[in-house]
Amino acid sequence: MSDQKVLLLAGGSGSIGSAIARQALAHGWKVALHGRTPEKVTALVTGLSYLGTVDGFIADVWEEEAAESLIAEVVEQYGRLDAVIDCVSTGPLGITGLLPETAPETFGDFLNVSVGWVERLALASYGFLATQGGTFIALVSDAGIYAAARQSLIGAARAGTIGFIRNFAVEAARDGIRAHALSTSFVEGSDSAIRRGSERMARAARKAGLGLPSADDIAPLALFLCSDGASKITGQVMSVNGGMNA
Ligand SMILES: NC(=O)c1ccc[n+]([C@@H]2O[C@H](COP(=O)([O-])OP(=O)(O)OC[C@H]3O[C@@H](n4cnc5c(N)ncnc54)[C@H](OP(=O)(O)O)[C@@H]3O)[C@@H](O)[C@H]2O)c1
């Protein structure tokens, strides 16, 4: 087995995942970069490959056994798996806003990604992460931790992810697996920020005393939590939000 550690970034072709991929490669990780859209994944992998070993993996999370197949392909390719960071999102459309303005029909998919997909991914990767002690991180939203107007649906779904991670962390620790929920709120430069529009971003920026984070500000904490320096830390819910919520 090669000494080089392997990180799977599920939803790695998105704004936050691609920033984590870049920094992980710079820190010597091999990166398995997953996304749904082949062209997007290929372009990203091509652009990052000068930094180290990075390969693309395509899977739609709604396909049957998507998590099992994805994990099997990654382990087949590299022979090991040391960390999984889940950044898959169906996007905020229809699940944020005052309750009468939300689109309840989109809530089922978001809830399924937040709880069902995260659970399936953790279960599929469990045996491989347990082999040498690995880390499982789910990206969540501050809406799952802090109450605010316009966040009922996203808050409910992300609270579900957090509940899963905290309980999972306690039992998985006996197999050497660490698990965390890494949260954020408004992220400068992300696709989600563009969808939210400049006025909402400006309002959020005024609330965040340290300034809103970019995806590059989130990646270092994710990688620290996957490192040997974090070997006694598990079950934590940490937010990189520039001081917007505390
Ligand atoms: N950006 C923010 O402002 C913000 C704020 C709070 C929390 N978060 C959380 O942080 C995480 C990452 O956010 P992000 O901004 O990086 O998201 P993003 O840019 O929208 O990326 C989402 C990722 O999920 C993938 N995906 C979506 N539907 C999929 C499906 N059916 N099957 C497989 N993959 C699918 C996308 O692939 P394709 O592009 O190919 O569809 C992409 O790789 C998410 O959990 C999000 O909720 C983000």
Describe the secondary structure blueprint for this structure.
Blueprint: E1 6-10, H1 15-26, E2 30-35, H2 38-48, E3 54-58, H3 66-78, E4 83-86, H4 104-132, E5 135-141, H5 152-172, E6 178-184, H6 191-196, H7 198-207, H8 215-225, E7 237-240
Parallel strand pairs: 1-2, 1-4, 2-3, 4-5, 5-6, 6-7
Bound molecules: NADP nicotinamide-adenine-dinucleotide phosphate.
Descriptive notes:
InterPro entries: NAD(P)-bd_dom_sf (IPR036291), SDR_fam (IPR002347). GO terms for molecular function: oxidoreductase activity. This is Oxidoreductase. It comes from Novosphingobium lindaniclasticum LE124. Keywords: Oxidoreductase. The chain has 246 residues and is α/β, with parallel strands linked by helices. The chain has a single domain (6-238), classed as NAD(P)-binding Rossmann-like Domain (Rossmann fold), CATH 3.40.50.720. It is 46% helix and 15% strand. The protein has eight helices and seven strands, in the order E-H-E-H-E-H-E-H-E-H-E-H-H-H-E. The chain has helices at residues 15-26, 38-48, 66-78, 104-132, 152-172, 191-196, 198-207, 215-225, and strands at residues 6-10, 30-35, 54-58, 83-86, 135-141, 178-184, 237-240. A seven-stranded parallel beta sheet has the order 3-2-1-4-5-6-7, with helices on both faces. Helix 1 (15-26) links the parallel strand 1 and strand 2. Helix 1 (15-26) packs across helix 8 (215-225), helix 3 (66-78) runs parallel beside helix 4 and helix 4 (104-132) runs parallel beside helix 5. The longest helix is centred in the middle third of the chain and has 29 residues, at 104-132. It binds NADP nicotinamide-adenine-dinucleotide phosphate. Residues 11, 13-17, 35-37, 40, 60-62, 87-91, 139, 141, 184-187, 190-193 line the site of NADP nicotinamide-adenine-dinucleotide phosphate.
